[in-house]
Hints:
The protein is α+β, with helices and mostly antiparallel strands. 25% of the residues lie in helices and 38% in strands.
Amino acid sequence: MDPMTGADAHRLPLRVYYEDTDFSGFVYHASYLRFMERGRTELLRALAGDQSDLHAEGTGLVFVVRKMSLDFLKPARMDDLIEVRTRSSELRGASMHLAQEVRRGEEVLVRAEVVVACVRNGRAIRLPDALRRALTPPGSASA
């Protein structure tokens, strides 16, 4: 079974605009980074609320991308309807590993593996327990 079609994969529909493309009419590679950032942000918003609230609550908690691996498979074009799928693949002490795909229908255009660190005052800290529970797929023992 494709893990990105499961119920635990967050889905963010987007449309490709002119500003997302290069001179050839294809989506510029850096635009996929913005699309995936939106996917990660919306996943966290759905699970834990607004990231600015986490920061403003006095905890100073922020999330930073530590590592990202991308595989560009097929191009998207202006006006395409695409979907960013994001799911948690592994949780560690101070980091979450996320799998992401950008799809056009069921066609995978880009795959990414992303490591996001939880940071306060420039230092890695343990993921908050509530977020850890929210990111753990049902039936998983990694909470």
